[in-house]
Amino acid sequence: MSTTPLWRRGPAPQPAGPTDYGYFGPETVIWRVITHPVTSLMAFQTSSMLEIAHRHMQAVILGHDRGVRAAIAGNGHVLQILRRVQRTVGVPMPILLGDTPTADRVASHLRRFHGGMTGVVPGSHSERYDAGSPELVVFAHVTIFHAFLRNYEALAFGPGRRPARLPQAQRDRYFQELVPFAELMGVPRALVPDSTAAVADYYAAIAGQYGEIPGHAQARPAIRRASLRAARRQDLPLVPLAIAFTVSQLLALAIVPRPVRRLLGIPAALDPALAAALAAARPGFAPLVLPTVGDRLTRTVAGPDALRLIRAARATMASPREPVRELAHAA
Predict the structure, then answer these.
(1) What is the spatial distance between Cα 257 and Cα 68, in angstroms, rounded to a whole number?
(2) Helix or strand or coil: residue 146?
(3) Using an 8 Å Cβ cutoff, are 170 and 195 in contact?
(4) 107, 98 in Cβ contact below 8 A?
(5) How far apart are CA 253 and CA 278, in angstroms?
């Protein structure tokens, strides 16, 4: 599917270690969440569900995502979309699991990369969007890490542990720990929601920013057409991938909060069916705890560098910090 350059930005990332734990470290809840294979596997699908109804995020995707633009133009290929998924999941991993110089370097790259994504929202006369603005960076920060947490709570099996919601204190601690990530992306600390209550208040405050801009409704059918073109070319490995991605999108719908489903036009009458589908599919994620399964999928989705960082973080967490490990995995 891909090689290391797809994910790597600059030199190889250096894992956080005893002399430099970076901005997070082995005692954080975020390390527990991010090192579980299901977090990477479902990251893009669930975060997309949380983001897709936001008008300015739609404008960024339509205006600057090469794969989506190519699909709409009729010459895209589903591999472009899949590689974008892989980059979205794998490129930020060094910020979370790398040492301080690694995190600083990759954060600087991401700030530069998003800095030029500006324009006028389609369908408006003068409403501007800016992917590098504090407002949109905070939105991406909240939705991505909220998705990580929801995935972990819904699907993460562990030794003697079934998926379960974390205690409230750990959920609050999770969002508080992540404030430095937003700061690395250029957001003032005061703007970053740092608890579950603050996240809920944040979503309520931006409710007026949801809607659909012109052209957005055509994007998903165009991507499906690109997938069919790939299948007709007998690019056979993409067929099971497309099926798996479709199923995972349905599971992501079940994982996100109910108000998000309403924003996406999913009627409340379907909530029980989605919950039943999630419950039925959940045991299928249990094998991810096996390295031969979970690590292989992590390498495919997030890349070899991310897998190396995750393995190093797991080894660090397994060294004499067992009380913290048990606390972070409490159901």
Answers:
(1) 26
(2) helix
(3) no
(4) no
(5) 9
The DSSP element (H or E) to which 31 belongs, if any, is helix 29-34
Q: Which residues does residue 8 pair with via DSSP β-bridges, in sequence order?
A: none
- Mapping DSSP to helix (H, G, I), strand (E, B) and coil, where does residue 292 land? helix
Task: Note the Cα 131 to chain centre separation in Å.
Answer: 16
Burial of residue 265 (number of CB atoms within 10 Å: 0-12, 13-18, 19+):
exposed
What are the structure tokens assigned to 323, written together? Answer: 């009380």
Stronger pLDDT, 139 or 74, i.e. the higher one: 139
Q: CA–CA separation, 32 vs 36, rounded Å?
A: 7
In angstroms, the CA 329 to CA 207 distance is 33
Distance CA 275, CA 155 (A): 13
R_g (Cα) of the chain, nearest Å: 19
CA 97, 99, 102, 103 torsion: positive or negative? positive
Tell me the residue type at 133: S
- Tokens matching residue 73: 């133009």
Collapse the DSSP code of 128 into the 3-class scheme (helix H, G, I; strand E, B; otherwise coil) and give the result.
Answer: strand
Candidate from 28-37, 45-54, 227-236, 288-297 with smallest mean pLDDT: 227-236
